[in-house]
Structures are given as C-alpha cells and as structure tokens.
C-alpha cells in the first residue's frame, strides 16, 4: 500500500493562486523562507517584497501561491495583506499584485 504524499496532498488542496497562512522560519539575502501545513511544506517569498516592512523569524504571514515546484517540492509565494482571506483564489493577478505593491509602498 502506498503512503500518501503530504506535498502532493497539500498542493492539490491549495493550488496555484490560493492564499495561505505561513510561518517565517528564516531570512536570507534574497528570500524569506516559510513553512506551511504544520511545517511540512517549505516555500519562499522574495525579500524585495519587504523593502518597507520589517519581517521577523516566527512571524505569521498571508501569502498567495504563485508557483508549485513538484521537482524541488517547494512553493513560491507573494506577500498579501493581513486582511486577505485564507484559502481564496484570485484570478485577477495583475490587479491584486498592483494593489499589494501599493499597500507595501505605503507601510
């Protein structure tokens, strides 16, 4: 009997464009490293999204899944506003990105 794959299960339930809650576990020069799904799924958010907002390890963020890399088993995400609803998807990416960028610029 085959065991379930937590990564594939998670990405099936949370496909590209889904908004998720994630935990910051590390900060590098280029990326914020996050964990999702009870620390079983890893992903990154580019640090350029955080130029006006300090981020700390242990902080919880809302982020949208931009890309699911099944080969490396990681997610690429984009920062969202705390008011964005977890689990929702937004098909109007360009508008959402511009709204989030404007919000970040004003923080």
Report on this structure.
The structure is a single chain. The protein is of the alpha+beta class and 107 residues long. The termini are far apart. The radius of gyration is 14 Å and the shape is globular. The longest helix has 14 residues. Strands 1-2-3-5-4 form a five-stranded mixed beta barrel. The C terminus is likely disordered.
- How are strands sequenced across the largest beta sheet? 1-2-3-5-4
Give the helices and strands as they follow along the chain.
HEEEEEH
Q: Total number of helical segments? A: 2
Please tell me the overall pLDDT: 78
Properties at a glance:
107 residues, 2 helices, 5 strands, globular, disordered C terminus
Write the layout of secondary structure elements.
Blueprint: H1 6-13, E1 19-27, E2 31-36, E3 41-46, E4 60-69, E5 74-79, H2 93-106
Parallel strand pairs: 3-5
Antiparallel strand pairs: 1-2, 1-4, 2-3, 4-5
